Amino acid sequence: MEPNASNSVQPDHFLEITPMEVHKVVPPPHRSTIQKLKSRLKETFFPDDPLRQFKGQPLGKKWILAAQYFFPILQWGPNYSFNLFKSDIVSGLTIASLAIPQGISYAKLASLPPIVGLYSSFVPPLVYAVLGSSRDLAVGPVSIASLILGSMLKQEVSPTNDPLLFLQLAFSSTFFAGLFQASLGFLRLGFIIDFLSKATLIGFMAGAAIIVSLQQLKSLLGITHFTKQMELVPVLSSVFHNTKEWSWQTVLMGFCFLVFLLLARHVSMKKPKLFWVSAGAPLASVILSTILVFAFKAQRHGISVIGKLQEGLNPPSWNMLHFHGSYLGLVVKTGLVTGIISLTEGIAVGRTFAALKNYQVDGNKEMMAIGLMNVIGSSTSCYVTTGAFSRSAVNHNAGAKTAVSNIIMSVTVMVTLLFLMPLFQYTPNVVLGAIIVTAVIGLIDIPAACQIWKIDKFDFVVMLCAFFGVIFVSVQDGLAIAVGISIFKILLQVTRPKTLVLGNIPGTDIFRNLHHYKEAMRIPGFLILSIEAPINFANTTYLKERILRWIDEYETEEDTKRQSSIHFLILDLSAVSSIDTSGVSLLKDLKKALENTGAELVLVNPVGEVLEKLQRADDVRDVMSPDALYLTVGEAVAALSSTVKGRSSSHV
Amino acid sequence: MEPNASNSVQPDHFLEITPMEVHKVVPPPHRSTIQKLKSRLKETFFPDDPLRQFKGQPLGKKWILAAQYFFPILQWGPNYSFNLFKSDIVSGLTIASLAIPQGISYAKLASLPPIVGLYSSFVPPLVYAVLGSSRDLAVGPVSIASLILGSMLKQEVSPTNDPLLFLQLAFSSTFFAGLFQASLGFLRLGFIIDFLSKATLIGFMAGAAIIVSLQQLKSLLGITHFTKQMELVPVLSSVFHNTKEWSWQTVLMGFCFLVFLLLARHVSMKKPKLFWVSAGAPLASVILSTILVFAFKAQRHGISVIGKLQEGLNPPSWNMLHFHGSYLGLVVKTGLVTGIISLTEGIAVGRTFAALKNYQVDGNKEMMAIGLMNVIGSSTSCYVTTGAFSRSAVNHNAGAKTAVSNIIMSVTVMVTLLFLMPLFQYTPNVVLGAIIVTAVIGLIDIPAACQIWKIDKFDFVVMLCAFFGVIFVSVQDGLAIAVGISIFKILLQVTRPKTLVLGNIPGTDIFRNLHHYKEAMRIPGFLILSIEAPINFANTTYLKERILRWIDEYETEEDTKRQSSIHFLILDLSAVSSIDTSGVSLLKDLKKALENTGAELVLVNPVGEVLEKLQRADDVRDVMSPDALYLTVGEAVAALSSTVKGRSSSHV
């Protein structure tokens, strides 16, 4: 826009195209404080309105709905058919073939006896089948929670010197993890897991996958004296200081099975129809390797094997739980961390597959189901379990229709526990290592990392912090650092809200950011700002400084060009979703500061809550004049520009 | 609005009144990542653009400006005139008459030797006069910082058993307080003090005033065996368990002087012109009471007096600072808490009077000035000082024009230190107690508390938490609780952003909240939502659930009335000031979920940053179709309503 001889052309021009009546800003319909509190609490804790279906139902129906709400099995059970069963039995057997070797491997990852992994694949799936609302979740031990459980407990108790105490602490941690998960769900505080952002999780998972894989070097290389630490540096130094312990038979066997498993995984990833290749490969490897060891008596040639396993179902373990004593703090902390990590995985998996099949999963209810499953598990010799991503994917691909596939898996594990345990006596540890490595490699999601880099550099930094924190510091600290940075970013965003300078798009009454839409034009005498965030104590000081700087910049820029100073500061409050007492003071201060320079403060479109609070201020006129309140920026400019014209000409 | 026979009437009607061309949403002008990072950092750390004045100046001028920036005395010094000096000398002497008794009293409040209070009123004001940019701030010890310093140090070291160590720790804490304050300013992290909201401060101040007053019961009642605790309950029980120690002479004297001081305060509050009444009253009380004690030998009748004070200026104390040893943690913590509290008071006072006289105070620069003042103070036998609210108000009322009034005060204190110290030997402690009570009573701001109750109930709760926390738990814990709750509220706001359902105001192309503006009407086939916050990892889950519920509610409500389902979900993103990778996924998921039901996602007015991030998504079409992007809701509805009409009639 060129400077004009007469500076009043533009408002005139603007007026021509918008011959408008002015709409009044009215306060929202009155609601009492109690009503407001009620609706606020509802939005905060019941955003999904779980009681919606109960409305207007007769009492009997309400009871049935309530029972179905707490036990989803009552919802789908009655309609269960033979066709569904056919699908479920295939998928159940498929995940069982995966669950048995993984259960044994993950228990070893947590430094627990291998059989605990099988116990944990028997009871929890049954509980989940009754309480859970996801149809695809395959329940059992998972790699990351196993890793964290083991590494946190190992800091204070040695699993080799005091295996019984270690086991007791593991069950106690599981109890507290379950209690914590169920409470989160019951108290509707599920949003706490949202603070683990996707970027954090991707970095964390990749780091954990590397830590887990490094731990497998012990069994893959056949090392007997291995460090007890988890981080990259001590593990690698331990590996290369013990090269004499490497056993070529173990390395060869490990390498062959690793290649076989990775190939199987590759095939299934290329052709999802061939999901059974990767699903069956671990069990096939276990069987094949066991036969090999048995045939060649390989355990005498330096290949370590699992050894004798106890037969029989889960023994009760509620008498092993520690509710007091010196380890209570450790157990509660471990329960908290493993609980939140496994909950995050379980909920994310449930939501992913629910979205694929277009049904709803109630996050808070799922938390209660998973929590209860762990509480029951902790008293039946199970450690922390959740919905595992890889097994759930196999379950989904194998055509699972309902939670019955979990029951099938559980029954298969039961049969194994009762009759097949002697078969595992000669299973070499190296194959278990290869199975774990293959499973966790899928957690390193490089395309997602690239995508994050492309979209948001800050998220990428958070991801790197989680990744390097896990690798070089420790699993739980890496996670804490990443969460801390994410929350700091949110607070920084709140402290430094955006203010946009709006200009008019010629020929319309649309006002948009001057620095974005080049065709948008300033209107002389007006400074139009849009505040893009709630105004609260944390940002009033900034906003005041920033707005005063906008005024200052406007005056120095404009004065030289057009000899016009600000007559009106229009604040578009459409995006200010709430305000507190500091915010009200800010507007008061701004109004006073403007009056000193002879300008006027005009507010546009405050939302209901903001308008109410402004009107409740001690002296409303200190904050806003009733005639300086408009519904749209366009109407404000149209109504006020005649005044500007008057003032400008009197200046000349 | 009544149900219509034909559901296409409204879009038609809407089209009639807005014969519009459609404006394109364009990406903002290109800027590189470095440029963006630069401007983001500038907005975050330099919102007030302190280097603005340097732009386009010759080098010599730049040097002068820089010197003036760091030493504001160079700015106003050259223009200093005799007229200004006349004003400053009056105000300087006035605040000196207040500073001397208050200095002695506050040092006793901090359990330090009374003379340290005078030392602290000599050096720091001189430093501030050179470095500070406020013209009204009267610098010296303040009640709350003194209270906190004393109470935190007393937890580990007894001031009576080991007075030298206690003094060393006080100076060391002052050093760390100053270091912390200066670093906050230097690193431009001044916004950290913004997290102490006005509501928190009002509650905290009132609580601290009560705690301070309770402590004065010791000297006001003449009790010799007083509790060392600070909280309400132990202090009151200590007072009433020692009724035998009450001395009627002390009580009588205390009562008389308290009434006198409160009356003087009342007079000055009613008539600000008589500011000198309350300003002079403390010194008058000290002189009068000293004469009384001296004349009647009252110290022999149970009235305790200050006793002999050392003469002479501040001795150096840099050799008394503790930088290691077992008390380092205590000293750093005490420094942090007193530093942030005294900084908050100093900055708030500076800003208040700057706003009254319409000049600017640079918060970060002030922090450096106050910090440096405390660092220098800690090596010249001073404890934590800042700009005191009550004394600054007197300074302002007495007509202070520049920081020279601080110099005058300092010189007066110097004369006192050199020559007048013997006069204080017979000053009774009870008068000092009365002076403190009178000073802190002004910190209880009941009208402000009422105002907060009226405007924002949540802020009121925060205020109460701070108040009761300070009274019943401890000064620092009360503060921590209130800050924690304030931050939790912000996080909750971020986690649960508002979504508004918009409707058209008939006869216009304005769209406003349906639940606020009763005349606003839904447009059949459209669900128009406005998201009122940045979209990030902490709220995507909630937003998804909430939006899906809006859709669900729309369909159940509308279906019965008008047999129309949603054809378009319009998301007004004007208020979404930023988005992260989770937010991009949310839009992707929403688009997919809508496509399953045959509806389409339309985005309106994404701001520059958001638009860029959406376009950088892997496959843009997954997130938004280029033809489903509009500049205003009105244009989107106008352009799309013909489609709805077509679809609806084909449904029939």
From TrEMBL, chains A, B:
The keyword Membrane applies. Coiled coil: none annotated. Its main location: membrane. It is found in: Membrane. Keywords: Membrane, Transmembrane, Transmembrane helix, Transport. SUPFAM superfamilies: SpoIIaa-like (SSF52091). One of its GO terms (molecular function) is secondary active sulfate transmembrane transporter activity. It is a multi-pass membrane protein. The chain crosses the membrane at residues 165-187, 199-217, 246-263, 275-296, 367-390, 402-424, 430-448, 460-488. Signal peptide: none annotated. Belongs to the SLC26A/SulP transporter (TC 2.A.53) family. This is Sulfate transporter 3.3 family protein. The lineage of its organism: Eukaryota, Viridiplantae, Streptophyta, Embryophyta, Tracheophyta.
